[in-house]
Design brief:
13 helices, transport, 72% helix, MetI-like, cell membrane, single chain, MetI-like fold
């Protein structure tokens, strides 16, 4: 009997990552270069320029602005107009974000599903966002102004003129309502994308277990929409914090400057009062506050999402 030795198993080394050739690095750099240049020119350079101008007293015309250091930032602390504008901006951001997301989620649930009627209503809901904010402001000013369409009807029926844009409280509420009307179509689209990503099997399982529609929405759909809620809140907050163009066309900051937002005040100080240095300091402050709020909201939302999935 002849004994044969078995050959040792051949151990093959797993293939490593492909070697990068120098030519690949140049190709990647060329592909990324246009986006990098655009990012630097459109974001980095303006931010750096704003930081520099905020340390000067430039009026927009002088060739050599004088360096004043942190004087503009010190003046910000004693500016009553900025404090009032900050309160208005905060109110617009908080109330507007709530309105945009509640309406956006509600209508997204209503028009979710494939049908001709839902497609039609999605177009109708998104259409106001296509219009320019200046056009939206002029449109609603013609409708709600003192001599607008609504007040003409009210006075014709024997009523008193409604101060939609002439009373500070009414004007602020009107401005928030118009902002929500003009912008919640985007939230509808984003929430629709989130609803279509919810696993259908989970919804069916909950219904088989006897859950009502509200219970399915609260316990299955809403937790699955966590990332969509975070994106919508942050986008809404950042957009509303820099509200400017609708203020110009709807209220022009009135009455008596009561509806001025920080962004409106920045451009007023920079170009109307020729204080570009002071306006740049305001814009830097707004940028920092916006970034900080977006970061905090994102962190809080992430914690909430992790708590739901645990």
């Amino acid at each position: 009997m002849t004994l044969t030795r078995e050959a040792p198993p051949v151990v093959t080394k797993p293939p490593g990552p492909p070697k990068r050739r120098p030519r690949d690095g140049w190709a990647n750099a060329i592909m990324v270069a246009p986006a990098t240049v655009l990012y630097v020119v459109m974001l980095i350079v303006p931010v750096a320029l704003a930081l520099y101008l905020s340390l000067t007293d430039w009026d927009g015309f002088s060739a050599n602005p004088a360096f004043v250091g942190a004087a503009n930032y010190v003046d910000l602390l004693d500016d009553p107009e900025l404090r009032r504008a900050a309160l208005v901006t905060l109110l617009v951001a908080v109330a507007g974000t709530a309105g945009l997301n509640l309406l956006g989620l509600g209508f997204a649930v209503l028009v979710n599903g494939a049908s001709r009627a839902n497609t039609f209503f999605r177009i109708v809901l998104f259409y106001p966002h296509v219009l320019s904010a200046l056009v939206v402001g002029f449109l609603w000013s013609a409708i709600l102004g003192t001599n607008g369409a609504v007040n003409n009807l009210v006075t014709r029926w024997g009523g008193e003129v409604l101060p939609f844009l002439s009373d500070p409280t009414w004007a602020t509420i009107t401005m928030i309502a118009v902002l929500v009307w003009a912008g919640f179509g985007v939230n509808v689209v984003l929430y629709l994308a989130g609803l279509q990503a919810v696993p259908h099997s989970l919804v069916e399982a909950a219904r088989i277990d006897g859950a009502t529609r509200w219970q399915v929405f609260r316990n299955v759909t809403l937790p699955a929409l966590g990332p969509s809620v975070t994106v919508n809140i942050v986008l809404s907050l950042v957009t509303l914090l820099k509200t400017y163009d609708l203020v110009v066309s709807l209220t022009a900051g009135g009455p008596a400057g009561q509806t001025q937002t920080v962004a409106y005040l920045i451009l007023w100080n920079s170009f109307h009062d020729a204080r570009l240095g002071f306006g740049s300091a305001q814009s830097v402050l707004l940028m920092l506050v916006t970034g900080a709020l977006a970061f905090v909201v994102t962190k809080l939302r992430r914690r909430g999402e992790l708590a739901v999935h645990q």
